[in-house]
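Record filed below.
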Amino acid sequence: MTNTLTHDNDVLMRPSVLNCYEGNMENMEKWWGAWMNFVFKTEFGGKAPWEHLVPLRTAAVPALSAEEEQASLPLQTLVGAIYDAVLVHLMNHVAGGTWESLRSDMCTKLVRSRSKRVASILTSSYRSSDVVCLQDVQSDFMKATADSQLADYFDIHYAARNGSASSLILLKRGAYEQVEEVTNSVASLLAPTAKESLQDGELLSITAVSKATKETYLLSSFSATPGRNIISNVLDAVRSYASSHRITRHIVGSHAALVGTPEVGDVDIPAITTYLNDNGLGTCFGPRPDPRNITTLTGRTHLQPKMNKAVSFKEITTKGERGLKDLIFFPNTHFTSVQTTKDNTGRRMFLEESVFPSTEFPSMHGIVSTILQHKDRPEQPPTNVSDITTMTWNIAAVNNNPFEYWISGTEEYNSLMDNVANFITSPGELDIPVGRVFTQEMWEDLESVMKEVGWEGIDVVAQMWEEDFKKRRIISELMNDSLIGKKRLASMPDRVTNTITTTSGLAMRPTVINCYEGSIADMNKWWVAWKKFMFKTAINVQSKGSAKDKLVWMLLKPITKAKYPAITEEEERVSLPLQTLVGAIFDAILVHIMNHASPGVWEGIRGEMCDKLNLNKETTIVEIINRNYYNNDVLFLQEVGTGLLGAPLLHSDFTVKRPEKWDSARNQNSVILLRKHEWSNVREVTARVLDHIEGKPPIADGDLFALMATRIENGAPVRYLLASFHGDTNGLATIPVVEAMHKYAATLTPHHKLVFGMDANTYEHPMPDQQGVEDFAKYYVSKNLTSCYGDNPDPTNYTTFHARTHLQPQLNKAVAIKDRDLKGDKNPKDHILFFKKDFVVLSTTKDNTGERLYKEGMVFPTLAFPSDHGITSTVLKYPSVSDMRREEKNKEKAEVAKKRSLIEVVSWSVASMTENPFEYWMSGSESYDRLMDSVSSLVVAPGEFDVQVSRVFTEEMWSELRSAMKGTGWSGVEAVSDMWEDYKHKRIVSGILANKKLIAKKLIIAFDKMTNTLTHDNDVLMRPSVLNCYEGNMENMEKWWGAWMNFVFKTEFGGKAPWEHLVPLRTAAVPALSAEEEQASLPLQTLVGAIYDAVLVHLMNHVAGGTWESLRSDMCTKLVRSRSKRVASILTSSYRSSDVVCLQDVQSDFMKATADSQLADYFDIHYAARNGSASSLILLKRGAYEQVEEVTNSVASLLAPTAKESLQDGELLSITAVSKATKETYLLSSFSATPGRNIISNVLDAVRSYASSHRITRHIVGSHAALVGTPEVGDVDIPAITTYLNDNGLGTCFGPRPDPRNITTLTGRTHLQPKMNKAVSFKEITTKGERGLKDLIFFPNTHFTSVQTTKDNTGRRMFLEESVFPSTEFPSMHGIVSTILQHKDRPEQPPTNVSDITTMTWNIAAVRPNEARKKLLSVVSWDTSPILHPFDYPLHDVMEYDSLEDDWRKAAASTVLVDTIVTSEMIDELKEHMRQLMWDVANVDHTWESIKSNTVAEFYEKRKRCGAADLVTRRVNGVRRPSVLTCT
């Protein structure tokens, strides 16, 4: 009655071990004060806790005496106080100082965050289900769902009358309509005793109509209670309601609370089985559920009041709570269950004999999921024979060293690795001599044991130690010595001894870079362990077919000059002792670095990484497969080791096939997993395929595995050729192997369908000795093969993203955390190939999380995904001969329909940074974010950084500039000299960069505009500035200034020096200028421009010295130099099937970029006769149009005079074109409007006028319309354009009234551009940045309607809302807009086949989507029973819990007397409060006298003997709560 009180969603807890009370209880005196204050003085919900107590009666508790019954209130309070005090005492005894933090962690995971975890499990693993029935859901569940994505997938239905633990039903979002709660109606049909027993929230019943089938379902969720189980009554009531309302489809998901040995009020399995058979009902577990098929396995601990029910962990399987508790019921006449699964992990996997709850799975009940098939629609079960679902995954990553590759880890991990990288790259004073880390004493120890071994040349190595190695600096002269790497002096001994496979397991050298289990943080202990391992440890290893005992040092191999030319002849002679010395030094330095980088913490981080990435890697891989890929037909895995083959859960769904030539030494083999019961006649053909290999490509045993297999489809056998392949690092073996596979396939009669999963090791930007992905695609297309990624895979559609850290021997390959995006291995390496004639792709997905999700830009492996290759999964459809003919006819019909009625139009303003890569915020890398955030912070709050200008732009620089300006003949130089006296005292940020008055004078803007980037005859010249892509080095201020002066005054380009491009400023145009500044505007622009550029260089060096130039260079490459190429690539890969593409703001180098791409293979490209530097283009589907003619001048001549004057060259392109298919003429225009002079409505008028005069009814304008939210002079806003459209019979791709929230632009100017008054921080972009609906496609409403419109800001036909762009992958500030227009005068159906459009059912791999909605229903039931306090049930996944439980049981047998724990002073204080309540305390004295001389063991034994009599279970707000024991 007092454990946990609730009122209006507030919670109050008694200070007790048995709940989640947040105060400190380790101090007994403080605990007692808090306890007394809670019970007697705290008012909560209008009552003090003591007022919640209820008298006990002998009628309900026969063990009570009459005297105890009379004094039951004070007696409960006394025994409760003693019990709580004993608990605190015992906890302090067994785990003083630690138990509260353990309890707090368990409370967070099991109690406070429980609903959130439930929502997370449902979202990640059950989001594709049709119906989810939940029981015992806590009241905070709705709040938890608000913070999760659950509501994105389900419509959530609660009962009108809820308890604090209630039943819920979740329906697939948007799949049902006319949903109505009928709980009261169903409950009214219960028998009277059952109706009285039913509690609020235990039952929820709803009716819902399926949108797909228009059928009505009666769906119920019910939680039964042992001792008053009314499950059969509820099923009767549901059947009765369904019958009276003529609903044939009724389903009940239930915690049925079936028991093995029934007592009064219970229901056992035989009883429910008889009931089901008598009433025509079935269950997800069949008509006769097997009681051994458990859904619950747990047991009460000794840390809860019901001590008579406590069991030890070992006793759970025999004495705990186990059984089949959870079922889904349905009428046998209408449903059959075709597949049922259980889950006690939250990952669609049930671990038999595994105790739960756990911190990951916070319920005592497993999840039950079933797929029901309608019996009156007896189509085939889920596996559709026209589909095959497959995936390919190279599971290799971390082998021995958990630190080898960067992972997406915790803040602790990132901090550790960042500190290590800084130590190694910028050691400074930390770069101490080797002899201070690997000491002279250590060397002498090593020398002694090496002499015992008898190696040659130890005297030579001793001399090297004394004269060379011990004097070297640990970082600059040893770790970063490239010669040591080339000589393999550190990497060779590491490779041989790091992790050794023995006949009895793994043996590991004591080093940072493996998973050695001992502690090595103490340098002395590490050295003792290292010597013992290398020279005293005997291991049993396989050698030439037999096992032999060897000492570890015997495994070392000489390093030969023939293989490693960098090594000298003398070093070769003594290579064994020399590599041992260098290896020891290397390991010692690593320990030293780690202790400096993260003292006391790094071993814990390494332990967790080893557990997830190394030691339990196979377990994690199996979990991922079982959770998300268990329904695949065939899986291709690469780089598989022996450990994975033995995983039992892998074999439950699949038959694992391995190559005959299994390489157990490398342990990197390709395997194939075949779904059980689907495949027959399986035989390996790897050797036959390899017979067709030409040349000597780098292929080893196990790299390729090929087999033939047969699958029965529609009653007939279909033959397959299946292959799994792992290419060499550079991908040079990939094409030879595919060629051999192609040749072998050609020899097979009859034809076999090839499915080939591979890690092809193909690259986006290949080096000369690497296989590029684009060339690979050209090759396989030439062989009539295609890939799951199509004939033209996007080179930026990466399936790997990893980078080496500084904690591995090959430091020349290490990448700093800030450079991971720039220098990491980010490539499209994984593919599934097949013959075009055999398959079409229904869907392809990637996964680098293990949750069927791929997070772009995330480094992996991660702790949850232990591979550096993502999973590629695809669903392939393979038609029969008749299907192929029908498909061809359908294609022809669809193509005709498209030609007649549909046209796909795309519009894209490819505007971005023209010169300055930093001008706009972009979605970038970590290093970019860090740099730009630092810049913004300094500009907004410069502090001490805000020095005077003369500290950056010096007097010497001014003197040189003044002299050069005098040489130009400019007037006003002397006036500017006077102004310099003012400028030099200004502050660099507040006085220059952020000075609004200076910005208003446009001096910087004018100078930058005229000199930033000069062009002449396709040549480009750039001012040395941060604000462009100048390629020279600028980090040295002196060198930068020399280059700047040379550029401005001495460089001739196009017949002029840059200073000659400057234009005087006039007060008429720039009112902020004074008359004196106007007169001297040319030299003043130059001075202010020079200061501005100097301040920017100073700023960048301050925030990112040594790195910003490489980052800028990469951005320039992707956003500026390669922008047109990237635009062409996006159009080719994602929009090549479009009919018309309108581009705006296209750079002059676009034509050159298209020449190097495949764009011209798909489009005829049309430019305007008169182009600007950024122009509009129109791309027409290649060969689809004829008689194309440019009519831009004719259209422009129809503009109003002011609009005609405003129009710039290249902004408008208009063409007429005749469709070859329909012979109709189209007028197509692409137009880029400009804010401040927006003439979009004038252009639309002119287009309409030209079309009318030439009798062209089909005119389309794709436009960057530059609509704004708050218009200024010369702007157009959405209300204005909407009125115009309605008045003139025009429509848009976004409808007749475009929604301004439907944005196509989201960006903002950074602080690294001259218009500082428009700069925003990254956080301010969504509120102050440039966002809005800027891009539209216009057309006449009389002739077109838009049937589908999509946006794209990724280049992959996907729009990420609230994602800032451009990015390095999407180099434009404008999204792509694509629409399919249907001709109103030809209303045929669009080409999309309506029987195939619904593709996303839960079992996408096995069911045709449109059929799934008609045939199958996925139903889930889960009792999420709350855990009342964190120690109630044992947790198998918390090691500290196990030891605490063991210690607790020992402490409970203590001979300590109760009155040494609960003092007489405490009892006196307690009695005093009782007297104030007018309670009779006479019996309290008697009871206390009988208890106080008990030992703790006797106290607990009495409690256990009292059994059920000493517990009264009552309800507080609907939740069962234990009262205090009274049996003494």
Confidence is low (pLDDT under 50) at residues 378-384, 1387-1415, 1504-1528. The radius of gyration is 38 Å. Residues 1267 and 1277 are 5 Å apart (CA to CA).
